[in-house]
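anyone seen this seq b4? input:
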Amino acid sequence: MKLKKQVIGISLSLIVMMQVSINPFNNSVYAGEVNARRSYYTQLAEVAEKMYQEMYQSNITRVADEETEAVKLPSEKVASIGKSLEIKSKVEETEGTITYQWYKNGVALEGKTNATLVIDEVTSEEEGNYTLKVTTTLGDTTKEAISNACVVTVRGFEIFIESTDQTVDLKKLEPGKEFSINVNMNHFYNIGEGIVTLAGQLEYDKNIIDRLEIVGQNEWELKNNSLNEENLKFVIENDNRITEDSGMLKIKFKVKDSITEATQTTIKVKEVTASGGYGAIGTKDAEVEIGIEIPEPEPEEEKITSDVYLIDDMAKEISKIPAKTTVAEFKKNVTTKQEMVFIDEEGNQLEESSFVGTGMTIKVGKTLEYTLIVTGDVDGDGEITVNDLAKVKLHIIDLEKLTGIYFKSADLDVDQDITINDAAKIKLVLIDLAKEI
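predicted toks r here
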């Protein structure tokens, strides 16, 4: 309204001057000069009117500097890198529709149209002077008010977590494994003379890992009563002002032995703030992912032992098996953790009640295979019969020589030769004068 009055005042002054200039009793003014002045002042009046129309065509009334008390901001704010920034305005209550627009260093901030300015994750770019324009519309009248400037200063640093031993892959740990992490700080920005105290909170799953030790590094001290074991909040101190990248904490953990399934977890250091005596500086949380793998069980050594039979692992033979030994009886007299499968010379799998015979094989687990030698069973049927005696006699008289496992089965007295003594032993079994050999 003040500007409108000023424009109208100028217009009236011009008209008065025009009227004085064309007074017929003023002998100093000639008729031609009168017309020229009338035209000149008329043009001035039209310019003044046009100025008024342009400035008030939207019925906007601009508020003078002394009226900006209607919008107030804090004079300064300190923000931390990585944290959120919030500037609250105090706007005088009034009638009408109110809209807001925030500015940084005189430039409108896109999308920032609320009474409170919120920046979720601050960077160093957020430093500057912030103002708020409040526009109130009531009917055909619109008023604008500009706040005082809020000076935002940004400070900050970052923390990160890494494995103390770079050869240890924290994503491939096993139950019972011990490991250590370092909590470090870097990327200092506008922190003044340095940091001497730091607070934060450690977070990890106590059902998965145990903490064995926590100590300060680079003269950071975790003194008595500086760690709450229940919520894991901590405060560390340094006698020097820290302004350069350095380690803060070393923490040793152990994966619980009781973990039976592969899983993932995180170790986090959060809610960290630091100070050098000139205000708290916050920073983003830091975390590291921990992966726990369950190793494949070591394959058990495939082996077979016996206190009854003679097992030759070099020749892959099992001997000293009495005649008429069933599969079930054989199993009772050996020790192994692997599955045993018995195969006859035709490739058929034996039943539990079947006799094992010379020349048959036993498969132990996936890799072991032995040939069976039954004492006195020369023909491989698992028993001692007249046929076995006949084969021994044919060998003795050089008509049909026995070799290999069949030679070994006929050598009943184990003298490395087949003699009449071996034939006698078989004969005694046949006439029931001797037990099975």
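The CA atoms of residues 268 and 287 lie 4 Å apart. Residues 1-31, 56-67 have pLDDT under 50 and may be disordered. kinda curious what u guys think
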